[in-house]
Amino acid sequence: MQTIEPSLKKRVVLTILDGIERLESFPQIAKPSQDEKYKHMRELFVPFGGAGYSVLYEYKAEADTILIASIRHTKESGYKLSL
After folding, report:
1. What is the DSSP letter of 4?
2. What pLDDT shows up at residue 34?
3. Which residues on neighbouring strands pair with residue 7, listed in sequence order?
4. How far apart are CA 83 and CA 73, in angstroms?
5. Contact, 61 vs 53, CB < 8 A?
6. CA-based nearest residue to 37, from 69, 77, 73
7. For residue 57, what are the β-bridge partners?
8. Interatomic CA distance for residues 70 and 6, integer angstroms
9. Structure confidence at residue 41 (pLDDT)
10. Which helix (H) or strand (E) holds 1?
11. Cβ-contact 54, 33 below 8 angstroms
12. CA 22 to chain centre
């Protein structure tokens, strides 16, 4: 199993949090999910290094609430970035 240095882990977390925090001001900035199962959700791409992370979320406008369903690395097995 590959170990990741603590400073890299911290940068990853801070980068993802920064991307998510943008949703506070711009909740519909991300594109709608192309997956039929999640068509009511949006997919935010957060770049990091040569790849990045996908944040799948639902924006509930009536409650001004964002519900995050998943955060996945874009090189994760089975992940497909839909542009």
Report:
1. -
2. 87
3. none
4. 16
5. no
6. 69
7. 42, 68
8. 22
9. 96
10. none
11. no
12. 11
Q: Which single residue is written with the structure tokens 């711009």?
A: 26
Secondary structure, 3-state, 20-40: HHHHHHCCCCCEECCCHHHCC
56 in Cβ contact with 37 (< 8 Å): no
SS (H, E, C) 24-81: HHCCCCCEECCCHHHCCCEEEEEEECCEEEEEEEEEEHHHCEEEEEEEEECCCCCCCC
pLDDT in tens, 16-69: 999 999 999 999 999 999 889 999 999 999 999 889 999 999 999 999 999 999
Pairwise CA distance, residues 5 & 77, whole Å: 22
